[in-house]
Amino acid sequence: MTTTEAVRPLLPVIEPNDGHPYVAGSRCKACGHTYVGTRDVCAKCTARDAMEHVQLAETGKVWAWTVVHRSFPGVATPFVDVIVDLDDGAHIKGTLVDVEPDAVTPDMPVRMVFREVIPAGADKPYLTYLFVPAQGAAA
Amino acid sequence: MSDVYVVGIDMIRFGRFPDRTVPGLAAEAALMALDDAGLSIRDMQALYCGNLGQANGMVGQRMLAEIGQTGIPVVNVANACATGATAFRDAWIAIKAGLYDTVLAVGVEQMGKGLLGGTGGGPSPEGLVGSYTMPAMFAQIGIEHARKYGTTFEQFAKVSVKNHHHSTLNPKSMYRKETPLEEVMGAEMIAYPNTKLMCSVNVDGSAAAVLMAEDKVRRLGLMDRAVRIRASEMSSNPFAERQMAMPDFSAATRAAAKSAYERAGIGPDEVNLVELHDCFATAELVHYENLGLCADGEAGRLIDEGVTALGGKVPVNVSGGLLSKGHPLGATGIANIYEVATHLRGKAGARQVEGARIGLTHVVGGGPGMGTACAIHVLEKA
């Protein structure tokens, strides 16, 4: 019996979860802060053993952004680098696609989609999350 | 505890020296600082040497191999863009602690061209999970300021016009060229709103300072060239909710500034000139507010009204700043102190801030997902 190798996540915080991918997060039961990624201690309130594993929200709003025109060699530009405030209170960095760069506005609603993409310099696809405008975009 | 003074300080002219070595560049600045103090390497009781690119390479010891191996303790320091200022502060601490009365601090860097940053091993998320370049990080900090206060691309660009103008008056600056507003705004866009002329220059450089305890300054009769260190404060990034997504340089700067003003017993309105960390044009405006030079939301007005230009109420980066003088990471912190000390001594020539009595230096560094190191010094004419 043969198995095909699953597409690997681009970052450790991306959980493939048998075809239902999500971004892993942690919520502090003591102070309520939600983090991207799995962690044991709260940087905000310093509580230990108060972290619960959560699936991060897939919708949020753009806090800050930039249009990157010059990047490292081999990386296609321009692209839109966004800081998104997720609806569960986590803050995450990502790339906003399916949008005209000049059309990005403060608090623009966005949602997370998962796609298999070949990173610059790599020879095979990886599973990553991307952001798209919340309305009218194809997943 | 007696006060600590700078009695010798200098820097090489920043530039690109691919045929030189890191210890060689450090040695040149060290000897210049010793000459400025009228002292010898034999008078130094300890060395704090700041460098990032060869942080595991014992740069301090290799520098002493070029200028005199006296067997003094050497501490090699690495702390992002605060590296040089951290070495300087370590020297200050050592004297404050009473261990030594005469200590040498050096900062040095040899850099390639191009973008800093990167994400280590494995497939690169660059472009797929935002950008890990420094210009993008600081572009977002500018956009954050714009969304809060309406700051414009033009106001950010004016920072570069100002600092490039200042650098035409500084013979130690990498570039000495006027850049009119239309040229800054029309330059290659790197990460909106920072164009290429709004990004600091990667250069090679070194700077060094001789620090001395007050009683020895008096004993040696060096008070006429001495600059008093009124405050030497550092901070790291306190918790900020977006910091893992978007490095936060403001909270650390505000914390160190508060400590520095308290330690010096002064307010921001008593500062006559500032050298702050203008690694990108967007950063300078944000730091006006972080350092208390104006109220939150007023930075755009400050640059519009020329308050921070030479001749204004509180000139900022009269050296040309990192934007034009250049930013050799490990050297920058001591080079900023050199600039302020030179004004306090009244020796800054065409760019002299008239009547300067108190100056402040600020460096802050870090990177995506790493954290922040900030150092602030308040210096006073002795």
Automatic annotation (TrEMBL), chain A:
The lineage of its organism: Bacteria, Pseudomonadati, Pseudomonadota, Alphaproteobacteria, Sphingomonadales. InterPro entries: ChsH2_C, NA-bd_OB-fold, Thioester_dehydratase-like. It comes from the Bacteria. PANTHER family: BLR3430 PROTEIN. Pfam families: OB_ChsH2_C (PF01796). Coiled coil: none annotated. Residues 54-115 form the ChsH2 C-terminal OB-fold domain. This is Zn-ribbon domain-containing OB-fold protein.
TrEMBL record, chain B:
Residues 4-178 form the Thiolase N-terminal domain. Pfam families: Thiolase_C_1, Thiolase_N. Keywords: Lipid transport, Lipid-binding, Transferase, Transport. Transmembrane segments: none annotated. SUPFAM superfamilies: Thiolase-like. One of its GO terms (molecular function) is lipid binding. Residues 247-366 form the Thiolase C-terminal domain. One of its GO terms (biological process) is lipid transport. Its EC number is 2.3.1.176. PANTHER family: ACETYL-COA C-ACETYLTRANSFERASE, NON-SPECIFIC LIPID-TRANSFER PROTEIN-LIKE 2. This is propanoyl-CoA C-acyltransferase. It comes from Novosphingobium olei.
